Amino acid sequence: MSKDTVLVVEDDQLLREVIEDLLHIHDIKVKTVGSSIEADTWLEAHIPNIIICDLFLPSISGLQWLNKVAERLIQGKSSIVLLSADHQRTDEMLEGSPIHPLVKHQLKKPFKNDELIRLINMIQANT
Amino acid sequence: MNELHPLLAALVGELLDKQCKEPATSKVPINGTQVQIHKNTKQLLHQINAHLTYDHFVSSVLEHELRTPLAGIVSTVQLLQSQLSTQKTEESARLQKWCDRLQKLSSRMEFLLENMKQLHKRDYSSQSTGRQTREINTWFENEQKSLVELIKNSQKLELETQMIDESFEYDTDYNLLSIILGTLVENASKYSPDDAKIGLILKQSHQTLGIKVIDNGIGLGANSSINLIKAFERGKDMDHIEGSGLGLSIAHAAAQRINAQIMLYNNEDVAGTTAEVILSNNEICQKTLF
User: Is the pLDDT of residue B230 over 50?
Assistant: First the structure.
């Protein structure tokens, strides 16, 4: 699995499974992980086209983790979709961070399945 | 978790400021009673801060945490719906109806979470409160689209305006007003029959400006508005209806922040309840109706 894969970083197993099912139905290659540690391990050998990342992860926050791996994501020209509850606050936190240019969209939970699929298709069409 | 609530921080700041300004020569010997009062005050402030900190935790962290399972439910329902839409059996039609119901309930939960967040943000944000001066009539008509989302598909929403001045401009926090109106409409829908008509009237007289939400639901017991407003308390004879008073307590808190009042009373000649938001009258800041 490589550049055409969507990496989903979400600590809630059930939501992870739902997103995985949804993407499978739409023939989108997906890899799901439950923590930043798992994501780090996967990133050692792969580079995703898109990362869908929850902001609240168990050990470090989603933004902290993304900034930690920013160099690799910038090199691989990955796009990021954030799962966030407060767009305004997330925008403030993103300001000036290395991953800011990679963040294409923020989705508020709960989101519409169609919206997520449309977003993925749009990003994939433009990369 | 040790940060002070803005209101408490302002109070402590004022007290410290006052203490600094007092001349050193005015030091009066402190007796035992004063020491005890000082200790009690300090303890009280600690307790208030603990409550406010907990409130902060509940409003911010819980709001986020609840969104994750809710997202799982909503997305699963949508997956089910898309599968069912390909089948044209009687069974699939019934399952589709159940999915619609689950979706409506999820929207209701999201509405509550969003309102909790908005209130919390206003209490903790150092930014402006979101006050605006705008034509209330136009705002009221524009609200219709989002309000329809909050009622059952089979129910009807009817808007009416009774304004002395159609282009009257009113200064308030319209986000909070949306929370209040949405909560009252959602509440009216919840306690009304499936085919109910919910009336909304924006009324301006020489003395008052207000909005009425009128339903033909099960009505209230006399003087039950106090109980309805208290968080998590249900109205009398409403045990068979899902939900709690959380929505109304949020609406009440929002009303307090814009110096508005909410009154709930039974309709005079027909069944049902009227919820009235009084936005402005001569005595609104002095008098409490609860």
Answer: no
Is A57 a member of any domain? yes
What CATH number is given to the structural domain containing A30?
Answer: 3.40.50.2300
Q: How many helices (H) and strands (E) does chain B have?
A: 8, 7
Q: Is residue A12 included in any domain, yes or no?
A: yes
The DSSP annotation for B261-274 comes to EEEEEE-SSSSSEE
Q: Under the phi-then-psi rule, with left for phi > 0, alpha for psi from -120 to 50, and beta for the rest, what region is B11?
A: alpha
Q: What is the ipTM of this complex?
A: 0.86
Per-residue confidence (pLDDT) for residue A106, from 0 to 100: 93
How far from chain centre, in Å, is Cα A127? 16
φ/ψ of B170, rounded to 5, equals -125, 140
* Omega prior to A110 cis, within 30 of 0: yes
Buried residues in A83-95 as b, exposed as e (16+ CB within 10 A): bbbbeeebeeebe
Rounded to two decimals, what is the model's pTM? 0.71
> What is the C-alpha separation between B208 and B203, in angstroms, rounded?
8
A1 within some domain: no
The predicted structure's pLDDT at residue A57: 84
Based on its alpha-carbon atoms, the radius of gyration of chain A, rounded to whole angstroms, reads 13
Phi, psi of B198 (to 5 degrees): -110, 120
**Could you give the CA distance from residue B226 to residue B222 in angstroms, rounded to a whole number?**
10
**Cross-chain residue pair A85–B64, CB shorter than 8 Å:** yes
Q: Is residue A68 part of a domain?
A: yes
**Which pLDDT band, with edges at 50, 70 and 90, does A56 fall under?**
confident
Mean pLDDT of B19-24: 60
**Residue-range definition of the domain harbouring residue A68:** 6-125
Reference B145, options B114, B174, B104, B185; nearest CA is B185
A11 close to A34: Cβ distance less than 8 angstroms: yes
Total count of domains within chain A: 1
Lowest mean pLDDT among B17-26, B36-45, B83-92, B265-274: B17-26
CB pair distance less than 8 Å for B72 and A15? yes
Residues 173-212 of B with CB under 8 A from A: none
Cβ pair B82:A110 closer than 8 A: no
Closest to B64 (Cβ–Cβ): which among A21, A22, A56?
A: A56
Q: What is the mean pLDDT of residues A94-117?
A: 93
Q: What is the pLDDT of residue B140?
A: 95
